[in-house]
Structures are given as C-alpha cells and as structure tokens.
Amino acid sequence: MARTSTASPKTGSAIRYDGDPLDPYIKAAIGFFELGDQDSCLEELKKIPIKFLTTGTLKTLTLEFYKGLERWDLLATFALSLPETPSYRLYLAAAEKNRSGPAAAEKVLRQTLLKFPDHAIMQYYLACYVCQQGRLEEARLMVGRAMELDSELRVYLHRSPELEPIRHAFKVSKELTRTRSHGR
C-alpha cells in the first residue's frame, strides 16, 4: 500500500499513513484534536471498529487522546476496561487524580503495587501523589525507593512540580545543617 504524507496544520510536521484500516479514523481524530475540536475528535475515535481495539498501540492512543482532552471520566472508564497492567493503571490514577484528587490516585497505585511492587515509575507517581497531600517524609522515602529501582528517574525528581515541596524541604534541611555545623 502506498504511503502518503500529510502536514499537520498546527505543528507543520508530516504524519505518514500507510493504508492501515485505522488511518482514516486516526487521521481525522488527530486533525480535530489539533484544531481543538474535542467533540469531533472523540466521535472519530468512537468510529474505530471494535476488532481494532485489541492492539496495544490503539489502546494507548485512545488513552492519550482522553488524557489530552481532559476527559477524565472517559479515561477512567476506558482504563478500567483494560487489563490490569502498570501502564494502564497509571492512566487510571491520572484520571482519578483529576476527578477526585491525589488520594484517589494514591489508592489506585497502592492497589496496583500489590501486584507490581518493583515498578519504578509507579513508585515515582505514588510519591508525587503522596507529596501533593503534604506527607513529605513518606513521599521522600517513596522517591528513594523509585530511584533504587531505576536511577534514571533522578532526572524527573529535579523537574517534577509535584515534588517541589520535597526539593524545598531538602534545600532548607541542607542549609540548616550547614548553618549549624559552621556556627558551632
């Protein structure tokens, strides 16, 4: 099948389509998404035949659309309909955080961590949700656990706005320690 290329009106980037049966739906959904027409984007996603919803890529694409459109109820419903994997449960946690707050997201991740205790990214997001609730010491320990599992997450520790209270607390703690040691 021939490949065609279409430039995105918003970004100018070329999107390639190779004749896959999903192309018309995805192409239309992306176009409406980029134009800010959320309702039409969702309508195009709903047109995708159910037999294609078994592919992991399409499931993730659908989750990303719902997340990008901030359609938290749709995101939660769709994520709950999928197998209980860490990736899909992270989407569910994001939906719950935006629908009901960080405590609801924490509950989702704690339940999922019972099955996947060594999932570093899930540990990291749990730390974010705990930090948002003001439980800084608990969040600090969770960040430490996530870093033990995957040291590359350290980069996100310094960028994540959700963890700013921990960074601030560490900075103040280090300054106090330095001041005390120099003042003696």
Could you explain the architecture of this structure?
Residues 1-19 have low confidence and may be disordered. The chain is built from 10 helices and 2 strands; from the N terminus they run E-E-H-H-H-H-H-H-H-H-H-H. The chain is mainly alpha-helical and 184 residues long. A two-stranded antiparallel ribbon has the order 1-2. The chain has helices at residues 23-35, 38-46, 56-68, 72-81, 86-100, 102-113, 120-132, 136-149, 154-157, 164-183, and strands at 4-7, 14-17. Helix 4 packs antiparallel against helix 5 (86-100) and helix 7 (120-132) packs antiparallel against helix 8 (136-149). Strand 1 and strand 2 form a beta hairpin.
Low-confidence stretches are: 1-19
What is the count of helical runs? 10
CA-CA gap between termini: 77 Å
- Gyration radius (Cα, Å) is 21 Å
Q: What share of residues is helical?
A: 55-70%
- What proportion of the residues form beta strands (DSSP E)? under 5%
Q: Tell the overall outline.
A: elongated
Total strands: the figure is: 2
| Structural class assignment | mainly alpha
**Strand numbers in spatial order across the main sheet:** 1-2
Major sheet: 2 strands, antiparallel
The SSE order reads EEHHHHHHHHHH
Average residue-wise pLDDT: 81
